[in-house]
């Protein structure tokens, strides 16, 4: 049985649809390899003809109805895009199930709605239940990790991945809430509370409104929850990755900077020492033209941030200092440069820029950071050049000064961000040695925008690595299961994203060329892009951009992404003017000093290296094993080849169909027969009645006729008799007159008899009286 044999008339398939993506259809004919077309009837009542150049163009087969809505995608016989999407759609739209398993992976659909499935009762319900016992849920995954931690004494990690706005951060928070609840210490240590409280702080300083998500994490986060031997949480630690620094100084339309800035502006009346103004008045906050987030009150959220900071042990002084540094970034962005000619004592006057002596923001910046204003003013407009023989100062053009100011702002923000993470980690640190840990990774998912830059490139590179880890893990598990079940298998290739990773990180790959270009004195984005075109074109995952010579396309595992190369070098170098940093390092403020304490080593480090470390694929994992026959019996399971379950399902449903037809036939016959007999009986009855009526009518008619005949005859006879009697009567009349006197005589005689009898009777009575008297 090959899959081709399943393409028979009536087979249900998926065909592409311009709006619905996939549309259900049914074959109107058997597939014939020698015929280049295939007619189908679509589910909306239409018909279509599919053009088939080869077997590859055959439409995807639909899973039997019995499998649709399965809570594990691996149970589907056909596991292709339309099958997965349809199954998820059915579960989500018909049952409001947002979670579905795909083997050990949990697929979650963002409901954008508060569902009542995350309360403490639900946590208790999932506690102690094996994965698969109950409906798919993030708590089930967390429970699985916790159980394995306990039973197998092995560290665990929960990796949350997905595109921006998919619900990664929310899912990670629910997973952590689960661990905090089930792993809560008997003694109130507050660690669980602190772990949960770290979220609002990190969201305030690392999340922002984007066009995709009002609360988008602009950094990656790995939280390690540490457990003791009793498997109670004793501490935690957090690592962050790839903070999107460029957002601090620039936001595209309808996007915002980090929430903390807006929170501080909203709470400016409580913090007069920051000299903040309405958010619209800050250059670093108003470029996106979208200052508010629907349903979010920044002043209220600020209160939550402060509460969380208190819980995590940030002192009041530390908090104020922190806020001052955040505010200083905003003031830095508002410093106005004026173009001008800079006079020089021993050299020619040069074109440059300067900051007005009265610039209010310049003054506030220096007050807030407690640094020397003149020094800062100088190094914001001038840079020091060191040659072999001498050191000289060069005024910066307006553009250079703006770039260096923005670089400083990003740098200050990033340093403060790192310091906050450091303090949170210290607060979460445990005195007791950790026995095991559960890690929760929430890095931002694959991203593609209209214009993609260095940030998207780094994110997508990280996601390539993550995807590879995922592939390896899943194939390794699958492979281990085959070994456990002792089934025979042969090697097949599987899709691996190593070629794309090679393109990015190999020698003379994208990153290597970028680092080399950064080291060149005259390196530029344009010449780097040129080099990419010549050196990387051999990679199938690389191509030139569609428009202009400044873009290139990488074919990632998730999608093709076109990157705009402008700015890559600048962002990769990520350099800040050392003199500016030195001014800040000389601050009289303890926190500001601390932020830049280790700065000198960092500045000395050559070009930033972006490298995502993940273990290399093991050779055996490049391949997996496939059964050479339709099914194989393992020790405890039967393994089917793809499509076999659907084939068996087809046989079963064909058989069932025939049985149904037979039953339908019998029932229909019975019903028809019953109806027929009833009609027959009714017809007979009607016939009988009609016939009776007709007969009666006939009888009546005939009777009338007979009576008529009878009466005619009788009349005739009577007339005849009458005539005879009349003749007789005439003679009788004569006798009657004779007898009349005789009759009267008889009557008078009769009267006399009656009188005599009466007298006779009276006499007898007298006689008897006489007798008595005697
Ligand atoms: N399980 C859920 N229940 C209810 N709402 C959810 C759920 N998951 C996500 N959401 C909603 O979607 C929004 C975006 O989710 P979230 O911030 O977790 O996305 P993300 O994947 O972390 O995106 P990004 O990569 O941009 O950080 C949330 O603010 C919330 O409103
Ligand atoms: Mg997020």
From TrEMBL:
<dbReference type="InterPro" id="IPR000048">
    <property type="entry name" value="IQ_motif_EF-hand-BS"/>
</dbReference>
<keyword id="KW-0505">Motor protein</keyword>
<dbReference type="GO" id="GO:0048513">
    <property type="term" value="P:animal organ development"/>
</dbReference>
<dbReference type="GO" id="GO:0009888">
    <property type="term" value="P:tissue development"/>
</dbReference>
<keyword id="KW-0009">Actin-binding</keyword>
<dbReference type="GO" id="GO:0000146">
    <property type="term" value="F:microfilament motor activity"/>
</dbReference>
<keyword id="KW-0067">ATP-binding</keyword>
<keyword id="KW-0547">Nucleotide-binding</keyword>
<dbReference type="GO" id="GO:0005524">
    <property type="term" value="F:ATP binding"/>
</dbReference>
<keyword id="KW-0518">Myosin</keyword>
<feature type="binding site">
    <location>
        <begin position="162"/>
        <end position="169"/>
    </location>
    <ligand>
        <name>ATP</name>
    </ligand>
</feature>
<dbReference type="GO" id="GO:0048731">
    <property type="term" value="P:system development"/>
</dbReference>
<dbReference type="InterPro" id="IPR027417">
    <property type="entry name" value="P-loop_NTPase"/>
</dbReference>
<dbReference type="Pfam" id="PF00612">
    <property type="entry name" value="IQ"/>
</dbReference>
<dbReference type="GO" id="GO:0005737">
    <property type="term" value="C:cytoplasm"/>
</dbReference>
<protein>
    <recommendedName>
        <fullName>Myosin motor domain-containing protein</fullName>
    </recommendedName>
</protein>
<dbReference type="GO" id="GO:0009653">
    <property type="term" value="P:anatomical structure morphogenesis"/>
</dbReference>
<dbReference type="GO" id="GO:0051015">
    <property type="term" value="F:actin filament binding"/>
</dbReference>
<dbReference type="Pfam" id="PF00063">
    <property type="entry name" value="Myosin_head"/>
</dbReference>
<feature type="coiled-coil region">
    <location>
        <begin position="732"/>
        <end position="769"/>
    </location>
</feature>
<feature type="domain" description="Myosin motor">
    <location>
        <begin position="68"/>
        <end position="633"/>
    </location>
</feature>
<dbReference type="InterPro" id="IPR036961">
    <property type="entry name" value="Kinesin_motor_dom_sf"/>
</dbReference>
<dbReference type="GO" id="GO:0016020">
    <property type="term" value="C:membrane"/>
</dbReference>
<keyword id="KW-0175">Coiled coil</keyword>
<dbReference type="InterPro" id="IPR001609">
    <property type="entry name" value="Myosin_head_motor_dom-like"/>
</dbReference>
<dbReference type="GO" id="GO:0007015">
    <property type="term" value="P:actin filament organization"/>
</dbReference>
<comment type="similarity">
    <text>Belongs to the TRAFAC class myosin-kinesin ATPase superfamily. Myosin family.</text>
</comment>
<dbReference type="GO" id="GO:0016459">
    <property type="term" value="C:myosin complex"/>
</dbReference>
């Amino acid at each position: 049985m090959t899959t081709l044999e399943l393409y028979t008339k009536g087979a249900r398939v998926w065909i592409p649809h311009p709006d619905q993506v996939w549309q259900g259809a049914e074959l109107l004919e058997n597939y014939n390899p020698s015929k280049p077309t295939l007619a189908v009837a679509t589910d909306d009542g239409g018909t279509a003809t599919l053009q088939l150049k080869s077997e590859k163009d055959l439409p995807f087969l639909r899973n039997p109805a019995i499998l649709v809505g399965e809570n594990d995608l691996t149970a589907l016989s056909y596991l292709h895009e339309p099958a997965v999407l349809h199954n998820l759609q059915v579960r989500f739209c018909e049952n409001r199930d947002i979670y579905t398993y795909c083997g050990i992976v949990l697929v979650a659909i963002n409901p954008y709605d508060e569902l009542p499935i995350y309360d403490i009762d639900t946590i208790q319900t999932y506690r102690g239940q094996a994965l698969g016992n109950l409906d798919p849920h993030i708590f089930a995954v967390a429970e699985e990790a916790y159980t394995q931690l306990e039973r197998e004494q092995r560290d665990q990690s929960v990796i949350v991945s997905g595109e921006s706005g998919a619900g990664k951060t929310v899912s990670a928070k629910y997973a952590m809430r689960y661990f905090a609840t089930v792993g809560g210490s008997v003694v109130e240590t507050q660690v669980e509370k602190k772990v949960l409280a770290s979220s609002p702080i990190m969201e305030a300083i690392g999340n922002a409104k984007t066009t995709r998500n009002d609360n988008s994490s602009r950094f990656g986060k790995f939280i390690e929850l540490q457990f003791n031997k009793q498997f109670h949480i004793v501490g935690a630690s957090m690592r962050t990755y790839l903070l999107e620094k460029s957002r601090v100084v620039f936001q595209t339309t309808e996007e915002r900077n980090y929430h903390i800035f807006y929170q501080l502006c909203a709470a400016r009346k409580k913090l007069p020492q920051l000299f903040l103004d309405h958010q619209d008045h800050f250059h670093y906050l108003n470029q996106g033209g979208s200052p508010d987030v629907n349903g979010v009150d920044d002043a209220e959220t600020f209160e939550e941030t402060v509460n969380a900071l208190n819980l995590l042990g940030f002192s009041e002084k530390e908090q104020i200092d922190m806020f001052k540094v955040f505010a200083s970034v905003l003031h830095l962005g508002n410093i106005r440069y004026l173009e001008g000619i800079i006079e020089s004592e021993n050299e020619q006057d040069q074109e440059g820029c300067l900051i007005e002596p009265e610039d209010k923001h310049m003054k506030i910046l220096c007050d807030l950071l407690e640094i020397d204003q003149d020094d800062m003013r100088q190094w914001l407009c001038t840079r020091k050049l060191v040659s072999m023989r001498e050191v000289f100062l060069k005024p910066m053009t307006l553009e250079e000064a703006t770039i260096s100011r923005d670089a400083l702002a990003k740098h200050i923000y990033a340093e403060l961000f790192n310091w906050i993470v450091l303090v949170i980690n210290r607060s979460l640190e445990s005195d007791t040695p950790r026995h095991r840990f559960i890690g929760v990774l929430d890095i931002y998912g694959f991203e593609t925008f209209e214009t993609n830059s260095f940030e998207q490139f780094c994110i997508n590179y990280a996601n390539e690595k993550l995807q590879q880890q995922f592939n390896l893990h899943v194939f390794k598990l699958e492979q281990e299961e085959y070994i456990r079940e002792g089934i025979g298998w042969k090697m097949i290739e599987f899709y691996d994203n190593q070629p794309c990773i090679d393109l990015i990180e190999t020698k003379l790959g994208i990153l290597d060329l970028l680092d080399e270009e950064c080291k060149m004195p005259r390196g530029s984005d344009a010449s780097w892009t040129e080099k990419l075109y010549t050196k990387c074109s051999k990679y199938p995952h690389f191509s030139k951009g569609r428009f202009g010579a400044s873009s290139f396309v990488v074919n990632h595992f998730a999608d093709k992404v076109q990157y705009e190369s402008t700015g890559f070098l600048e962002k990769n170098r990520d350099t800040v003017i050392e003199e500016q940093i030195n001014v800040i390092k000389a601050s009289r403020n303890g926190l500001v000093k601390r932020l830049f304490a280790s700065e000198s080593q960092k500045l000395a480090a050559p070009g930033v290296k972006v490298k995502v470390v993940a273990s290399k694929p093991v050779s055996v994992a490049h391949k997996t094993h496939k059964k050479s026959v339709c099914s194989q019996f393992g020790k405890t399971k039967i393994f089917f080849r793809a499509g076999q379950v659907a084939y068996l399902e087809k046989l079963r449903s064909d058989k069932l169909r025939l049985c149904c037809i037979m039953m339908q036939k019998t029932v229909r016959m019975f019903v028809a027969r019953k109806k027929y007999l009833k009609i027959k009986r009714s017809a007979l009855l009607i016939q009988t009645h009609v016939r009776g009526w007709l007969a009666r009518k006939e009888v009546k008619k005939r009777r009338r006729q007979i009576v008529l005949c009878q009466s005619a005859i009788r009349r005739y006879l009577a007339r005849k008799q009458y005539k005879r009697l009349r003749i007789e009567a005439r003679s009788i009349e004569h006798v009657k007159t004779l007898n009349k006197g005789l009759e009267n005589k008889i009557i008078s005689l009769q009267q006399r008899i009656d009188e005599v009898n009466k007298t006779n009777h009276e006499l007898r009575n007298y006689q008897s009286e006489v007798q008595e008297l005697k």
